[in-house]
Design goal:
Belongs to the TRAFAC class TrmE-Era-EngA-EngB-Septin-like GTPase superfamily. EngA (Der) GTPase family. It is built from 14 helices and 18 strands. By secondary structure, the chain is an alpha/beta fold. Helix 3 runs parallel beside helix 4. It binds guanosine-5'-diphosphate (2 copies).
């Protein structure tokens, strides 16, 4: 590295940064109007149309990446759901429950100008049961005079209330210090109580009515085993062990699949939150797409959620029994145009109704996991990169030719590469490198991350 003009510490730093595993997850929960969205905006440091939301407008972005004092984490925002759907207590509790389930730590936001309400108390009970670390945010303490209101929140029994003004930024730094303290340093070792290294975890996701619960029933037959339950608020099983192809798999978050609550307004947001939580808990996402209808923006968003979360991906085209020749013709074109960004994902064409091609599901999942865990030895990677650079050099820009000098795979699940270059590598060339990497090493069913460091 040194003779290529890179400082060895830079190289090591870049590899470590790119090689991080899954980020710890922080959920922000609390009643409506306590300032959750304002706080989320402040933490992520940008305004992503969170507060501007009009009631009833679908918001499907519920997780954001954030950083404080060099620690990175994922933020799950629960601010986007209209409270009048279920009645305030139930809706706040339901939201909090999903967010808490997916989280490693929780920020509980209370409006200190109002004080602790019955709804707040209900959330406190949930938090106690979940046993996750909680940071209590006493919000709307805009000035010194509000500090007393914050102190009163000791009564919640959640420890020190952190006086904060999400609106003006007051106190947020101290609160975030407490958050970083509460988050596990390494990515969590358990998911829903199960130790990593147990059965592979599958999230079966897709928009409503694509056939998720039908598929689950079909594959499960009589073999389903409930592995755990969320304490308290629900008796629905969360995760289920199902034996398929001679292997036991854990289907995560199956309660969400069975639609225990029927919602009209806010249902999309509810579904997004649930999907995000399931994806967080899983290694593989099986996205169901209903072939009897056109591939929709919502289908694409769900696929994107899985890709952005860095999960292995299988596309299952369900209701194949409904296809006629004409629809099939259009479907193939839709797949080419609407799902081009995941052309690398294994596809299975199934029918939960007839059982068609159910046996192809497991091999597809196994292929995706294999790609997701692939590690390319540094020697092989550099031989490949050397060949690629000489056979297909980067276009010359401003009289110079940026070159990829060397690279390494910094991590797996999904594969992450760091390439070191002598100049700026254009987007098109990065895409070319990714395509060639896939041709050479497989990576079927997995997103891959490529970051490029440029020599100073
Ligand atoms: P959410 O429903 O919990 O997401 O709450 P919002 O973030 O939408 O905030 C509700 C209202 O409280 C908005 O009008 C905010 O401007 C206001 N708000 C949020 N944080 C603060 C704060 O720290 N101080 C004051 N005075 N108002 C705040
Ligand atoms: P979910 O909302 O994704 O869980 O979808 P469901 O499993 O509840 O299915 C929605 C509807 O599609 C139900 O009426 C199912 O009977 C139907 N359905 C599910 N899978 C298939 C399939 O493979 N073929 C056909 N024709 N209908 C299906």
């Amino acid at each position: 590295a040194a003779e290529e003009g890179f400082d060895i510490e830079d190289v090591e730093g870049a590899i470590e940064e790119a090689g991080h595993g899954p980020l710890p997850v922080l959920a922000v929960v609390g009643r409506p109007n306590v300032g959750k969205s304002t706080l989320v905006n402040r933490i992520i440091g940008r305004r992503e149309a969170v507060v501007e939301d009009k009631p009833g407008v679908t918001r499907d972005r519920v997780t954001y990446e954030a950083e404080w004092s060099g620690s990175r984490f994922k933020l799950v925002d629960t601010g986007g759901w209209e409270q009048d759907v279920l009645g305030i207590d139930a809706s706040v509790a339901a939201q909090a429950e999903y967010a808490i389930e997916a989280a490693d730590a929780v920020v509980f936001v209370v409006d200190s100008t109002v004080g602790a309400t019955d709804t707040d108390q209900a959330v406190v009970r949930l938090l106690r049961k979940a046993g996750k670390p909680v940071v209590l945010c006493a919000n709307k303490v805009d000035g010194l005079s509000g500090e007393a209101d914050a102190t009163a929140l000791w009564s919640l029994g959640l420890g020190e209330p952190h006086p904060v003004s999400a609106l003006h930024g007051r106190g947020t730094g101290d609160m975030l210090d407490a958050v970083i303290e509460a988050l596990p340093e390494a990515p969590r070792m358990t998911f829903g109580g199960a130790v990593l290294g147990g059965p592979r975890r599958i999230a079966l996701i897709g928009r409503p009515n694509v056939g998720k619960s039908s598929l689950l029933n079909k594959v499960a037959n009589e073999d389903r085993v409930v592995v755990n339950q969320i304490a308290g608020t629900t008796r629905d099983p969360v995760d289920e062990l199902i034996q398929l192809g001679g292997v036991v798999w854990k289907f995560v978050d199956t309660a969400g699949i069975r639609k225990r609550v029927h919602l009209q307004q806010g249902a999309d947001y509810y579904a997004s939150l649930r999907t995000a939580a399931a994806v967080e808990k899983a290694e593989v996402a099986v996205v169901l797409i209903d072939v009897s209808e056109s591939i929709s923006v919502q289908d694409q968003r769900i696929v994107t959620m899985a890709v952005e979360a860095g999960r292995a991906l299988v596309l299952a085209f369900n209701k194949w029994d409904t296809l006629d020749d004409e629809r099939r013709y259009y479907l193939e074109r839709e797949i080419e145009t609407e799902l081009a960004q995941v052309a690398w994902a294994p596809r299975v064409n199934v029918s939960a109704l007839t059982g068609r091609h159910m046996e192809k599901l497991v091999p597809a999942i196994e292929t995706a996991i294999e790609g997701w865990e692939t590690r390319v030895p540094t020697g092989r990677l550099n031989a490949f990169l050397g060949e690629l650079v000489s056979s297909h050099p980067h276009p010359i820009r401003g009289g110079k030719q940026p070159r990829i000098l060397f690279g390494t795979q910094a991590g797996t699940k999904p594969p992450r590469f760091v390439l070191f270059a002598s100049g700026f590598i254009e987007h098109g060339y990065r895409r070319y490198v990714e395509r060639r990497l896939r041709e050479e090493f497989g990576f079927e069913g997995t997103p891959i991350h490529i970051s490029v460091r440029v020599r100073e």
